[in-house]
Amino acid sequence: MQHIEIHPGFVLIDKIHSQQDNTVKYVFLSQGQVLEFSFIDKRDGKDIICVPSQTGCRMGCKFCFLTDYDLAVRNLSPEEIADGVKYVVEDLRLLIRPDANDVLLISYMGCGEPLLNARNVIESCELIRDWYAGAYETVRFAVASIIPVPAAMRRFTEAVRTRGLAMKFHWSLHSPFDAVRKEMMPHASPVEESVRLVSEFMHETGNSAEVHYSLIEGENDREEDVAELVRLLKGRDLPVKFLRYNPKPECAWTPSPRVRRIRNALEENGIKTEFYAPPGADIGSSCGQFLEDYYVAHTGHGPR
Hints:
Elements: E1 4-7, E2 10-17, E3 24-30, E4 33-40, E5 46-50, H1 78-91, E6 103-108, H2 118-132, E7 138-145, H3 150-162, E8 167-172, H4 178-184, H5 191-205, E9 209-214, H6 223-233, E10 240-243, H7 259-267, E11 273-276, H8 292-299
Parallel strand pairs: 5-6, 6-7, 7-8, 8-9, 9-10, 10-11
Antiparallel strand pairs: 1-2, 2-3, 3-4, 4-5
């Protein structure tokens, strides 16, 4: 498609429609770096836009496609994040469609670790809320993080509370055991400390939270994993969203066949669960896939 300059230094370079679902991916160039935003349409009454918080990620998670690429990491400004959202809203005419939705949900689950850019993430939320508070009945936000460490998490919690943001916290757990979790996600924070901080977030802000958990056969779907999940989460009002694992060619892991059995075991102990198949997998817009296609296209380099 023809490149569209939205304002100096911020250019739309591609727009891609999924052939599997209703996801639309927008690819921008800002300060010479690629940013990807996705519109997710689940036909559930919400306009969902998945946004990045950084231009890359240094967390090194084993199951993330970006781990194997040398991406320059820069914290995005509040304006870059908000401008991407504004373009998606206007391009898809979300506010003037005959079937316009009442809820706008901005999900900081694209590229990057939001708590490493927490100040700009919070400021972008305020910008977006101020722009659209009169157009939508509800403007909500969500972040996903593997590092709710004490100082950063408490600053984030206080900012969400004092600024009155409707913000859901998604804690990326993926194993209840610290040793296994560190193998999967080298920079992940300790499990017991993290679950306390997530509970504090819920108590201090009045907002909800949930656990993200991609079930991988033989890695985190064993009986001992289930028992430890029950011990860790029982009575905490923290539901678990089991995510469909997107197999990565460089990694031998495969999705677990035990999803239903594990969900039943948790629900029998009063822990709510759901299973979620992340959308846009065919256009590199699913969990852990952002930027891979364009990194290869723009540099000619594959994984390390």
